[in-house]
Amino acid sequence: KVPLVKELYERRKEFDLFIVDHAYNEVVYPFLHQAPFIMVSTPGTDYRQSAVLGNVMNPAYVPSQSLDFSRPYSIWHRFLNTLIHIAFAVYWRNWNIVPQLQKEISAQFPELPPLLELERNMSLALMNTHFSIGIPLPLLPSQVEVGAMHCRPANPLPQELESWITGAGSSGVIYFNLGSFSRGSYMPVQYRDVFLQAFRRLPQRVVWKYEGELKNVPDNVMITNWVPQQDILAHNNVKVFITHCGLLGTQESIYHATPLLGLPIFADQNRNSMFIRNSGVGDFLLWEELTEDVIVNAINDIINNPKYKDNILRKSKLMRDQPVSPTELAVFWTEYVIRHKGAPQLRSPAAQLSWVEFLMLDVIFLLHLTVFFLYFITRRILRVIYAKIFSANDSIKKKRE
């Protein structure tokens, strides 16, 4: 109904390409009609998006983003994972998100095909993941891994911050940041006080990104409302990164080889925290179990046990060992889609199949029908042969008698 929206819709063909986020973004689908578009999956592999491209991920080994395990190791994990894969797709497509938006969009743009049909015209998916720090997956040409695209070499730190970090000496520095969404000032008072008391007991200095003012801050703690995160993580005197386990921060820490101590809060952070522990690049704590001793012991373990630094150095080398940078790869494929007018040659024929065709339910039904028919015919033939043989034997017996 907004004139500017109508105007943009009418001008959509003037654009060479649309780049849209993968989640909860069906509202922009009208602008993608008859226009090439790329979807960007910031949390990594999105099995719903992958299915749209014709590559259905196997829940036996591809974990859901909403579950707290990095891989479905047990039968119970696989069972839960399968239910989530199915339920999420049904909820999204057939029950809540898409049906509600479809009703509204059809009222405004009655000439448009269904949203799910528009979605199938996706040219490419850029995924914020990489096999070196995730799960190796069978991918289509239209699925490109560009994980850690935002990671970069370090720049010099501001002088005050550099002096604080180098002034810590051999004890080193702890970097504490709960991200931009889960701001430090939102932390409940009881947890904030526990961290302050724990930091007071440590020989290390602490850089804590905290939006707001704090009282009774220990002398070894610097409070700041903004920090150049990658430049801090790259500093060789930073020993551990206390994080909420956001994927971008986790990738930055691996790229710059700084061990992690996770405090997951919501969404994919539980899964990321399990990855941190299972890959040996750090550990994580649960908020409800936090005490001074728990925090101090976890930090000391990560700093003093060389396995964490060794493991994250190894992961960092794997992440960096690529023929071209993730940024260059993303730029190439973006321009490729533009050059080739949507690059239809990348699209899998599987994307156009119905679920009945994709799962070969019709073929399986036909196979069952064929087996039943063969069984029925064979049974009838054997019965005829059996009847002929025994009727012939009866005739011979009667003649002898």
TrEMBL record:
Example of a GO MF term: glucuronosyltransferase activity
Topology of this chain in the membrane: Single-pass membrane protein
Organism per entry: Cherax quadricarinatus
E.C. no: 2.4.1.17
Gene3D superfamilies: Glycogen Phosphorylase B
One Pfam short name: UDPGT
Name the UniProt record assigns to this protein: UDP-glucuronosyltransferase
Transmembrane helix is among the record's keywords: yes
